[in-house]
Fold each of these.
Amino acid sequence: MSKPRILTGDTPTSTGLHLGHYVGSLENRLRLQGEYDCYFLIANVHAFTTLAEKPDEVRANTIGIVKDWLAVGLDPERSTFVLQSEVPAIAELTFLFAMLLPFNKVMRNPTLKTEIEAKQLGDSYPFGFPMYAVGQCADILAFRPELVPVGEDQEAHIEMCRDVALKFNQLYCGVGNRVPPEEHAKAGGVFPIPRAKVGRVGRLPGIDGVQKMSKSLGNAIFLYDDARTVQKKLNKITTGRQSPTEPGNPSNVLMQYVDAFIGGQGPEGAARAAEIKRRYAAGDNIGDGHIKAELGEAINSLLEPMRQRRATLDGPEGDARVIDVIRRGTARANQVAEETLSLAKRAMRLDFGARTLG
Ligand code: ATP
Ligand code: MG
């Protein structure tokens, strides 16, 4: 029996991934990589929503992010790495799905609204910016996955993707309105209705303590940051607390990091995190500086093996390895996506013969 599928991915808006990606999505990808047939997509076309004037940057970021995937332990022998711009079926499905989504519903999408605000896009963003939310439905559905490991910020997008799949199956595949989502595929729908799988920490705040940690907001600790940079960034966090005996807010950014990176280290880590938080809330002689140092150690011990693996991918040889991995994965991915497109076209009565482009 074939394994159920996973699709998820990252946009190459920066040279690498950060701790938010790790706890929000990468950990799940690593954990599920054996059980599922995984497709990991680099959304390089979507990077042009904000970087249209910087094609060289998008290209370098694409390579950087795949290096991080390899450094974290995503395995191209077990999983398929997909380059969005080389999967034509995704672009075609985007157009078809755009017909099923009310314009105002896309524009009201809370993830888009938050991004426009956080990235200070004002009203100058391109048409392609809201389009990316529609495109993301196609990224996902092209692979007919059951599960999409993402951070909390993506839940609204996944909901939209589910809506598209439900509507498609009902309109074109004769699936009744009362059929529950989990039975759509069995009832003849082209698309299984995918579910979001949010990570251990759904929304890790950035070191600014306000926004979510984000590649584009200058508030991220990157997986490739060296030990000193990690510590320097942690030291920048401000909590407004004046002394080790002042009771602190047990849910501020520092404590969220304690939960994520000290608490995440097995039962001992969980006990230590609980103790820190208790003493912090009580103002029991525990300073922010001390906590930052302890956090620095925990985060650096998590990141050190990744840094070492990433170092083996430095330079042009590393780039060549990455490009090879992407090419091979994308070829595999195109087989699945083309199959999906032809199923979708048949359902939409658009099947006027085999696809011949030559
Ligand atoms: P950008 O600022 O360009 O939007 P990003 O940092 O938000 O970049 P994405 O490529 O948009 O990164 O997101 C990739 C995946 O990582 C998504 O599943 C997203 O939900 C998850 N993710 C991103 N940031 C966080 C975070 N701070 N906490 C948890 N998950 C996150
Ligand atoms: Mg994002």
Note: The pocket of adenosine-5'-triphosphate (ligand 1) is lined by residues 10-11, 13, 20-21, 24-25, 150-151, 153-154, 202-204, 212-216 (CB under 6 Å).
Amino acid sequence: MATTWHVLGAGSLGTLWATRLARAGVPVRLILRDAARLKAYEAAGGLTLVEHGQARQYPVPAETPDNPAPIQRLLVACKAYDAEQAVAQLASRLAPGAELILLQNGLGSQDAVAAVVAQARCIHASSTEGAFRDGDWRVVFAGHGFTWLGDASHPVAPIWLDDLKDAGIPHEWSTDILTRLWRKLALNCAINPLTVLHDCRNGGLQEHHCEVAILCGELTELLERCGQPAAAQDLQQEVERVIHATAANYSSMYQDVNNRRRTEISYLLGYACKVATRHQLNLPHLNQLQQRLIVRLQSLGLPSD
Ligand code: NAP
């Protein structure tokens, strides 16, 4: 019998994965926060995915964390700051040989999760797919992209990648997933905080070329010190390319701040600064950027961690 995908968190990415797996006939179950969220979900009748302007509802079964059934495969689709606690409450349900797929952006949350489920295999993911919620239990598939998956401690690909193929989730097994995550983190650090501080779209950073270049220099130093030279290669050129190619877009951090939502700063810029300190690396502009961002978040009444 096919293994069930438990999906922890029915937000943007959780819904994007759950609905595509379910419509391919793969068994999926959602794990929602508590009985109140489960009741609200059941009243809604399922998850709605809006794709190419067309909305379709999928009645994916759901449960609460205290359901006793064992979990073999868990897709963790919470924000980075919720992942550790959300997984910890499921630790006793994990079957021997259980696998977790971690969709969180940035770095730091994956290690925190792995520490609470030492017996399970943790697979990291880095995705360029884009989705947002436009209502409760309703998600718009906004940007088609790609997902890389990998396990830094075990290079063999799991057989369930076939489920992703059947579900039409574009993906590839990566043997250098940490390099990909570091590269994405560095791009994020060079672009997203500045879009918040300068209150601009990505393209607005073309007017702050020097500031971006200095940050890229410090980020390159950090990546090299962390043993990630491949992630450091031509970083500034790629940052400039991304700024140009996504000039009309608002960064994810900008959108979080604009919508008065908590950001994932601790797993992005905050993580970079923490690791630099650990390596006794003096990166004054990166630290200053973090301080400026914290002050801005606090002035808006948003969490700064
Ligand atoms: P999201 O829309 O905010 O969804 C997070 C979900 O997690 C929410 O539904 C939330 O429940 C749920 N959750 C939190 N704690 C929980 C718990 N203890 N038990 C059960 N459910 C819990 O977030 P997202 O945009 O999908 O982002 C998830 C991760 O993917 C982030 O790290 C993000 O950076 C990354 N990512 C997102 C995108 C994207 O396009 N959205 C793209 C690439 C990467 P409630 O509904 O009850 O609040």
Note: The chain has a mean pLDDT of 97.
